[in-house]
Amino acid sequence: MVKIMPAIRCPYCGGDFWLDPKIAGADVACPHCKGRMIVEKTGTGEFFVERTHPNYYEDVEECEKLLTEVEKESIREAALCIGAGAYTAAEFMVCRALESIARRITGKDNFKEAIDALDGIEKYVLDYFRHVRNKLAHPEKISTKEDAESTYYMGIRLMKEILKKQSES
Ligand SMILES: [Zn+2]
User: Strand 36-41 vs strand 16-18: parallel, antiparallel, or unpaired?
Assistant: First the structure.
């Protein structure tokens, strides 16, 4: 019997990889970008791929060139955490990325000083995220899926605003 190994196209990075048909239906990770997905086999023998977390490539595409490697990695990990149900960790990684951007563009050593050095609506939204980060640092706090998704999407929108403004000035 000949086993046909189907080529799966990763819905995150677009890279192809081979999947053992025995593990179809399972939660698998792309060997290129580690993005996670559920691969299902249909009745007609086709493979159907479903994403299990936000697509960080798509989400940061507009501002990718303005992010450092560590900031990109923080956002990537936040997206993976959402798929894994690690919602507190997901929120924390988004706050870390925002803190890094704020400190980097202002040249300040801590989040509070960096926020104080900024102005406009971004200043207030960033301060909200600083409060989120402080709450997360307390061991009593566990985030829900809604908390994590809202922090992830709001955080990325804010990053784009700040970086866009920064690159125009
Ligand atoms: Zn991939």
Answer: unpaired
